[in-house]
Hints:
The complex is a heterodimer of chains A (233) and B (272).
Chain A: H1 7-11, H2 13-49, H3 53-67, H4 71-85, H5 88-96, H6 99-125, H7 129-137, H8 142-172, H9 184-195, H10 198-230
Chain B: H1 2-17, H2 25-32, E1 34-39, E2 42-43, E3 47-49, E4 56-57, H3 59-71, E5 74-79, H4 85-91, E6 96-98, E7 111-127, E8 142-146, H5 150-158, E9 163-167, H6 170-178, E10 184-188, H7 189-198, E11 205-208, E12 214-222, H8 226-241, H9 244-253
Helix pairs in contact in B: 3-8
Amino acid sequence: MNYQFNWQAVITGEYGQWIMDGLLITLQISAVSIVLSLVLGTLIAVMRLTKVRILEWLALSYTEFFRNTPLLVQLFFWYFGSHAVLPEFVNTWLYEHDFEFGAGVISLTVYTSAFIAEEIRSGIFAIPKTQLEASRACGLSFLQAMHHVILPQAFRIIIPPLISQFLNLIKNSSLVMTIGVMDLMYMARQIESYAGRGFEAFTVILIIYLTISLAVSFLITQYNKRFLRQIAY
Amino acid sequence: MRKLTILAVVALSALLLASVATAGKIEDIKKRGVLIAGVKDSQQPFGFVDPQSKQLVGFEIDLVKAIADKLGVKLELKPVTSATRIPMLTQGSVDILAATMTHKFERDDVIDFSITYFMDGQKLLVKKNSGIKSAADLAGKKVGTAKGSTSEQNIKNAQPKSTVLSFETYPEAFLAMNQGKVVAVTTDSGILLGIKNSAPNPDNYEIVGNYISDEPYGLGLPENDSDYRDFVNKTLADLWTSGEYKKLYDKWFGPNTKYYLPLEWKMEVWPN
């Protein structure tokens, strides 16, 4: 072992700043994508549950398509591939704005929402059908029944698998560096190629990713515990 | 479970601490009978896949071939990118790097370099009539380059008001420019020449600007193996003094090639 470790180099000075910048981008892209994928995933799940054939079929194809294709390919599809089919003025507008970040958010959102839709659907199925029938019998509309009776119960069941989807999203966000988004992973590779301090840089970002994941999962679990107390049977 | 964890930790530590026996590189290579060189595979005319023969060819590949011949061993090529080249050398997956790498003192911490074998400087590649003439025109615009290259830093210093987008390889950056995602691709002029003249319609592009920086290329060698480094330096100097270097240079950058780049610098050759 003739390697001299130099931890100082990667956590202080210019390289430390790079890691902070990367962390900020990783947090931003993850936060935006988590919120959007939760909204989109819920929408897709509800579409699958309505008894309208065309909506069901659309939601099903969406889920199957995006769950069963690699995320990396989807990233390149949105980033490089979309150029060919979009009208020129749309492209120009996109490139004037932060399209790299945008394409990253779209990919992560679409990919994760397909998984989230499945989790929500199975959560809703776990609630006995009689509850829906009973609420309808009480005079609630389908959406009211969903909102007041079914979803609050379903979400309790859904929370744990949902956490793991969020964590997957955070981990998957490390792929966006392939389209030029300067996230944590990008910065670590940068440090590796500039200073040759790959081992230190990757160790530091592994710890950072781990910390983010554990924090997210802790916060949601805490929220869930309170939430449970509120709507005890 | 706890026992398992402790076991895993112990095993990992053992792995990390496993000391690598370091004999001299030259003996290693001769024993193996093969020199493993890390080269670029999509960078005309330095190192690229020849469309006809499907073989890796290029100026840098001829250079490492000469070194392998001098050692009396076969040559094996491994493709590297700007981001992976240094780690591949430090891990020992390659013995030498000939991968358009600028010699920087910062990189000297982890690897060693040969004397300069190619001298270049950074410029801009733009679409014709783009109105961009120099780095000054890039203020508020996006410019593409490759990850892990000096080009990335240089352009940030030359034009702090531009946004730099880095891709895995230069061809990808060039695609981004053709799609309008960036207005220019910036790197060493020799590489830009290669990109421009391998495009289907080279006349649609132009290389503009003054040299933003000096880019002396050195061969990457393992840290602290001075016998090996001396050997490589001597080989380069011999190539230069025997006129062999000029032949190789003209084969790839001469007036009759697509990548004409006049030889305007001299190798630092030490007397025998």
